[in-house]
């Protein structure tokens, strides 16, 4: 990110103020800071879910503003994991994982097989056909991780992935993310309030009032 600013006209908020941040390939970065400090806004910018008001986000040497399709960019390059999972409650675990695979796995049977493989990978091989709303909270977060890693994106972004989990479940989810990023050499950026999550990272970035400080 070079000189990234984000101004929300709604509320007249400067959520990011001249943010410069370089993240190396395969690095694990934790983003910490007070509520309202700009963590989610920063993560959304890294994942091309929102556009800066000023400045530029570069990915693999190319500015996002020059990507021909941000949809395709996200489908191939970014895996997103949210605190509240964003699963569709009436769909099965497998159907939820398949949701984001249309671009990376155009063939239906390939998509199904890959969704099952990913669910097995996150330890949910026996829950493939369960509806999302019948799964425990920890299991839902695992489905969300399986969905995020479909297509093996080089960058995984997680916004408070352990925020709704107890300590044990939270540790399991972080162990899983750690394993996956090492196996796949993925870059991982995690927004967190949890010191134990931040301690696992290669680097901790502190953001407050939209401004960065490395700690
Ligand atoms: P954090 O994730 O650290 O809690 P956010 O990035 O969500 O912080 O928010 C940063 C600031 O921007 C806050 O003041 C918040 O109220 C504001 N904000 C976030 N999203 C929007 C939005 N879509 N419209 C207007 N203001 C927003
Ligand atoms: Mg947030």
CATH class: Alpha Beta
Instruction: Note the main sheet.
Output: 6 strands, mixed
Tally of DSSP helical segments: 7
Structural class: alpha/beta
How much of the residues is beta strand, in percent? 15-25%
Q: What is the averaged pLDDT score?
A: 95
Please state the CA-atom Rg, rounded to the nearest Å.
17 Å
- What is the β-strand count? 11
GO molecular function: ATP binding; ATP hydrolysis activity; transmembrane transporter activity
GO biological process, one term: transmembrane transport
GO cellular component, one term: plasma membrane
Domain ABC transporter: 1-215
Task: Outline the structure in words.
There is one protein chain. The chain is an alpha/beta fold and 215 residues long. The protein has a single domain, classed as Rossmann fold (3-Layer(aba) Sandwich), CATH 3.40.50.300. 34% of the residues lie in helices and 24% in strands. A six-stranded mixed sheet has the order 7-8-9-3-10-11. Helix 4 (108-121) crosses helix 5 (137-149) and helix 5 packs parallel to helix 6 (167-184). The chain is globular. The mean pLDDT is 95. Residues 8, 10-11, 13, 15, 33, 35-41 line the site of adenosine-5'-diphosphate. Adenosine-5'-diphosphate binds at residues 8, 10-11, 13, 15, 33, 35-41.
Task: Present the secondary structure layout.
Blueprint: E1 2-8, E2 13-19, E3 28-32, H1 39-46, E4 54-56, E5 58-59, E6 62-63, H2 70-77, E7 78-82, H3 93-98, H4 108-121, H5 137-149, E8 155-159, H6 167-184, E9 187-191, H7 195-200, E10 203-208, E11 211-214
Parallel strand pairs: 3-9, 3-10, 7-8, 8-9
Antiparallel strand pairs: 1-2, 1-4, 5-6, 10-11
Helix pairs in contact: 4-5, 5-6
The structure holds adenosine-5'-diphosphate and magnesium ion (MG).
Residues 8, 10-11, 13, 15, 33, 35-41 line the site of adenosine-5'-diphosphate.
């Amino acid at each position: 990110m070079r000189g990234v600013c984000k101004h929300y006209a709604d509320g007249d908020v400067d959520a990011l103020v001249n943010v410069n941040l370089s993240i190396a390939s395969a690095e694990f970065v934790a983003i910490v800071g007070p509520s309202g400090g700009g963590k989610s806004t920063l993560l959304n910018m890294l994942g091309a879910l929102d556009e800066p008001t000023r400045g530029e986000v570069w990915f693999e040497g190319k500015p996002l503003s020059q990507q021909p399709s941000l949809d395709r960019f996200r489908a191939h390059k970014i895996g997103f994991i949210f605190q509240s999972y964003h699963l569709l409650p009436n769909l099965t675990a497998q159907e939820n994982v398949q949701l984001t695979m249309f671009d990376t796995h155009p063939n239906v049977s390939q998509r199904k097989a890959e969704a099952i493989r990913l669910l097995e990978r996150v330890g949910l091989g026996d829950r493939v056909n369960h509806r999302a709303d019948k799964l425990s909270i920890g299991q839902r977060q695992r489905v969300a991780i399986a969905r995020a890693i479909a297509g093996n994106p080089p960058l995984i972004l997680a916004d408070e992935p352990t925020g709704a989990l107890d300590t044990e479940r939270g540790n399991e989810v972080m162990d899983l993310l750690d394993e996956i990023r090492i196996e796949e050499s993925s870059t991982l950026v995690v927004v967190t309030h949890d010191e134990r999550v931040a301690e696992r990272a290669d680097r901790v970035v502190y953001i407050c009032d939209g401004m960065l400080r490395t700690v």
